């Protein structure tokens, strides 16, 4: 039924201008805005919809993962751009905020609406 559909995902934020600035300027993504909605454009035509929600509650799980070749370099760049990495109990991270406890090297951070994102080394 959907084998040829170009599906996309989406998530809510409580402040579209703040999200546009964060995703466009801080993270350097290509972002477009139409009818009060944002679209994050990723390579390969994979778009993600960002929509306003007045009673937004941040996701308690990772909504976007950004694979990188060098997580230390990415963490340093993001920190220089004002991003703060999350620290979770029972998941020790190094001084950069990178979790090295098994699986891919990963560091979590939040967008201005409190949604959880990650950068992970592949």
From TrEMBL:
<dbReference type="InterPro" id="IPR037523">
    <property type="entry name" value="VOC_core"/>
</dbReference>
<protein>
    <submittedName>
        <fullName>VOC family protein</fullName>
    </submittedName>
</protein>
<feature type="domain" description="VOC">
    <location>
        <begin position="5"/>
        <end position="122"/>
    </location>
</feature>
<dbReference type="InterPro" id="IPR004360">
    <property type="entry name" value="Glyas_Fos-R_dOase_dom"/>
</dbReference>
<dbReference type="InterPro" id="IPR029068">
    <property type="entry name" value="Glyas_Bleomycin-R_OHBP_Dase"/>
</dbReference>
<dbReference type="Pfam" id="PF00903">
    <property type="entry name" value="Glyoxalase"/>
</dbReference>
